[in-house]
Amino acid sequence: MFEIVFLGTSASAPSIHRGLSATAILAGEHRFLIDCGEGTQRQILRSGIGFKRLNRILLTHGHLDHILGLGGLMSTFARWESIEQVEIWGGKTTLDRVSTLLYGVVLDYERLPIAIHMYDLKPGPFAETRQFTVTAFPVTHRGPGCFGFSFEEKSHRPFLVEKAEALGVPVGPERGRLVSGESITLADGRVITPDMVLGELVPGVKFVYIGDVGRTDNLREFVQDANTLVIEATFLDSEAEQARQFGHLTARQAGELATECNVGSLILNHVSRRYREVDIISEARRYFHNAHVARDLDHFVTRRGKPVEKVTPQPAWMYEPEAESTDGK
Fold first, then answer.
1. Per-residue model confidence (pLDDT) at position 312
2. Residues forming a β-bridge with 128
3. Taking the domains of the chain in order of start, what are their residue ranges?
4. Which residues of the chain, if any, have pLDDT below 70?
5. Which of 14, 45, 193, 203 is buried most deeply by CB count within 10 Å?
């Protein structure tokens, strides 16, 4: 199970109701922050998740609407929070820009009480726990070093309690050894193998997060069979050519990708204030029925075998249409 907390869902510039790009991913005791647009630390406080253990930051790319909040966040960590170290993962050009921001502007003359580690992302797995792995994959936007992320729970074989009890396997460490793949010998000399008490292999949840991206043909292998896909929908199909010029997607393209790749649920992000939310979701659902538009502070849960579930819906009155924008980002 993965929890997704949207902290900022706007495209290019903040609007009245939407902050700049930032999303928290919660997986048990582990936490990740994907992107950190301006105002992210305040959104973290508003969301109620707090700063604790939110010290692994994954950056999709180095555009300012995705990284400017790092200055304030690192300053807060250095002064107020009990965080000893922070990991920042991104492409080389992204990290160069972040380094200039942090050490050339925000932290230049400070003796930091925390260690900031920056890691140059390469395609492939880069973080692993007992329950899941996190993989980076390249995406096409404007400039080099743009990445998407796949969070995948490890497959497992469920322990069949009734079979274990019928075989006389006692409750305790013996069952743990069977789950880990070891055979055990009972007091009466019988050997019990894992196959005797474990069920069929069950695949884990696959959750894919893609930030700004301008094409989908090179995403399919990474998106295929995802339980939940988060991806941008900055434009509507009526402005597809402008979307192509700026390296972004339309809601139609996002919906078509989800259908082609057998995705379970689709959540659209990076929303431009030039459009009404109802028009974005209507276009997406013409091509993929189980589509949602993320709002700031929305909290979703993605589980194995179930559609994504919104657990903290925001009231509709907060999202009346705003003034039309002509920005092209």
1. 67
2. 133
3. 2-156+201-319, 161-196
4. 81, 108-111, 312-329
5. 14
Q: Of these residues, 35, 65, 212, 298, which one is catalytic?
A: 65
Instruction: Judge contact between 94 and 145, C-beta under 8 A.
Output: yes
What is residue 314's predicted lDDT score, i.e. its pLDDT? 52
Tokens of 139: 């995406």
Identify the burial level of 70 via C-beta atoms within 10 angstroms of its C-beta, where 0-12 means exposed, 13-18 middle and 19 or more buried: buried
| Residues in Cβ contact with 190 at an 8 Å cutoff, skipping those fewer than 6 apart | 167, 168
Crossing angle between the packed helical segments 92-101 and 69-79, to the nearest 10 degrees: 60
Report the run of H or E that residue 226 belongs to, with start and end: none
Q: Who's near 86: CB < 8 A, 6+ residues apart?
A: 55, 56, 57, 74, 77, 114, 115, 116, 117
Phi then psi for residue 148, to 5 deg, are: -110, 170
Among candidates 38, 2, 13, 40, which has minimal Cα distance to 297?
Answer: 40
The pair of structure tokens assigned to 235 is: 């434009």
pLDDT per position as a tens digit, 157-205? 889 999 999 999 999 999 999 988 899 999 999 999 999 999 988 889 9
Q: What is the CATH number of domain 2-156+201-319?
A: 3.60.15.10
What is the pTM for the complete model shown? 0.86
Q: How far apart are CA 30 and CA 83, in angstroms?
A: 14
Identify the pLDDT of residue 84.
Answer: 84
pLDDT the model gives residue 109: 57
Residue 153, class by beta-carbon neighbours within 10 Å (0-12 exposed, 13-18 middle, 19+ buried)? buried
| Distance separating the N- and C-terminal Cα atoms of the chain | 33
166 vs 156: CA distance, rounded Å: 22
